[in-house]
Design a protein that fits this description.
heterodimer; A: alpha/beta; Peroxisomal Thiolase, Chain A, domain 1; ten-stranded mixed beta sheet; globular; B: 77 residues; mainly alpha; Non-ribosomal Peptide Synthetase Peptidyl Carrier Protein, Chain A; 3 helices; 0% strand
């Protein structure tokens, strides 16, 4: 078995409001908010690195768990914005945590990467004990803050999140997950030549269908109705998309945790940042099902079901 | 009712106003469909024409004008 034991996060202190961004994009702050539900996002400093901010989230997570890095059996680092492909940020994260032999693997997948890493961690934890999952992104370096780049510039921000998956204990048991990939639509969302390129309309078309469908599928496997779910923790892509997923599932929107208004879309970090903030508001063990879900480049998408630790 | 008129009916339902774009006019560039309205438009087309649009066809370019939609629907029939 595998359990969600703790989450952590780190956000850069620099806030970039719609009012600051809008003039550079030839747009209005109101238009940005209406299109995305985002009020502000965070930008990393010039001195920050994808691995460096990932380490800060990792330390926050370990502190929350009351654990130390030396207890980790593996580290998985999801990122679509690392400036260096090989070696990716995972080995740097491990090194900065003081580890010289613990396996640390990269999941170079934006947006859905942390969900993929959580699923791999759930499978691996019974063998290695504790797996630290990190999602870390500096997306601001991949967008172009100009009128030509406004469709992506309005959305993305920087940040990092982390989760400790433990084979023995936690506040919720990872019961099931579904991961999917469809490379036939890979061109609609990609990082190429150092820039994020997105056919936003096609991305929303796919996400609006695939996310509710995969969540419904994982719930049906366990005969759980969406209305019974205690919390939905989704990749924070767009507030309008989250509302649409809630409506499709006929689940109350207030069960869908959302912090995108404050951080924007932080790609693979967003799921873990959202989970971290959600868990801080209710640190007790969960009393009902919790769903984590994400969609993004690849296309990759999926959903994970976590249940109260005592439930079988 | 011909297919183009039925497509226009779906578009007007999604746009919630009596729009009448030219057959080759971009529904995106004209501002008639944003990302989320497009999703509703595609769902409305499925209902109106009793077709299931597979994920492999979820490309916005296929739905950018009345004529493009008509050609796509004809290919599904």
């Amino acid at each position: 078995m595998a359990f969600l034991r703790a989450f952590g996060s780190w956000l850069p202190p620099r806030r970039v409001t719609n009012a600051e961004l809008a003039p550079r994009l030839g747009a209005s702050p109101e238009w940005i908010f209406d299109a995305t539900g985002i009020e502000e996002r965070r930008y990393a400093g010039d001195e920050d690195s994808v691995a460096g901010i990932g380490v800060l989230a990792a330390r926050d997570c370990l502190e929350s768990a009351g654990a130390t890095a030396s207890e980790l059996g593996m580290i998985l680092v999801a990122s679509g914005s690392s400036s260096r492909f090989c070696p990716g940020p995972a080995s740097q994260v491990a090194a900065q945590l003081g580890l010289a032999s613990t396996p640390a693997l990269d999941i170079p997948v934006a947006s859905c990467g942390s969900l993929i890493a959580l699923a791999l961690a759930a499978q691996t934890a019974p063998a290695v004990g504790r797996v630290l999952v990190v999602g870390t992104e500096i997306m601001s370096r991949l967008v172009e803050p100009t009128p030509e780049g406004k469709d992506t510039a309005i959305l993305f921000g920087d940040g990092a999140g982390a989760c400790l998956v433990d084979a023995d204990k936690g506040f919720a048991r990872i019961a099931d997950w579904i991961l999917s990939t469809d490379g036939t639509a890979a061109e609609i969302l990609k990082v190429e030549d150092g820039r994020l390129k997105m056919d936003g309309r096609s991305v929303i078309l796919h996400a609006s269908r695939k996310l509710p469908r995969v969540i419904d599928e994982v719930l049906k496997r366990h005969n759980i109705d969406a209305a019974e779910v205690e919390a939905f923790l989704l990749h924070q892509a767009n507030l309008n998309l989250i509302a649409r997923v809630a409506a499709s599932l006929k689940a109350p929107q207030e069960r869908f945790f959302a912090n995108i208004a404050r951080y924007g879309n932080t790609s693979s970090a967003s799921l873990l940042i959202a989970a971290s903030e959600w868990h801080r508001t209710r640190p007790a063990p969960v009393s009902g099902p919790v769903v984590l879900a994400a969609f993004g480049a690849g296309l990759n998408w999926g959903a994970m079901l976590a249940l109260p630790s005592s439930a079988q | 009712m011909d297919p183009q008129a039925r497509i226009l009916k779906v578009l007007q339902s999604v746009a919630k106003k009596p729009v009448s774009p030219g057959a080759d006019e971009s529904l995106f560039a004209s501002g008639l469909l944003d990302s989320f309205a497009l999703t509703d438009f595609v769902g409305g087309l499925e209902q109106e024409f009793s077709v299931s649009i597979p994920d492999s066809d979820l490309s916005a370019r296929k739905f950018d004008s009345i004529n493009k939609v008509a050609a796509y629907i004809a290919s599904r029939s």
